[in-house]
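Quarterly update from the structural biology core.
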Amino acid sequence: MSLSRVGLAFSRPRLAFPCLRSLGVDPQRSFAKRRRRKKPIKKKKDPNHPDNWTRWRFSQYLTNKDPDVSYWDPECEGWTFQPVMILERSPRLVPENFEPSWEIEWQQFQDELDLKKKKIVPLEWLETRRQKMEEAAKVFKPNPRITDADREHNTKSLHRRMDLPTYLVVQRHGSDQWTLPTADWVQNETLRESVEKMATEQFGFDLVQYLMGNAPIAHYVKGKTKTFFFHNLWVSGNVILKDNKSLKDFAWITQEEFPEYGIEEEVVEATNRVLWAG
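Predicted structure, tokenized:
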């Protein structure tokens, strides 16, 4: 007998238990109890790792803040700090004849690509652009860009100069000077806290605004006074003058109108660097 036949003689039989096959049981299956897999040990999260940092919330900070904390520093001796709010009502309309250069170039590029795919056909088969505009004008009638507030020059209305951003300026009691809303800084408050508190005290609860970030967007120094500007966006509502102990008057004006209202030159220069002039 050859070695190959000997090897076949000791090979595993194809079907050792034919009765198990009929029952749907694999005869080669091991019936020994399976060992339970150990659960992997979870590693403790490192609180100092950036992935495990908790999101910072200003409201949570105010809730857990120590009321006796002080932000005064010996280097601040002799200085005065003024947090100022730039409350902006963003544009509601696209400026007239507003077409950026990149959009014109992109449209020209698209036209060149379309010309390669188009075929020359008689003009009678096509509908001209003027005809399309005339048909659309019969259905769609846009509202006028100039509102009643523009005609009446109502600076207290938010429906004025809808194509440009407008900003809130105020007059305090006992003064005829127009200024941006200014808060009084206290040592146990951050600059943002002072701005938030001032908004509630001066504007009332009807006006809803959103503060863009925790840090000021600009500042300027005049003498021993440092002024910091915080950018806020208008959401809804308006200033309430009835029973207002802080403000005498208010107005929503554009950046171009700042000099007309006697806003300080330093304020105009600082805001022109960081705000969109339209």
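Residues 1-11 have pLDDT under 50 and may be disordered.
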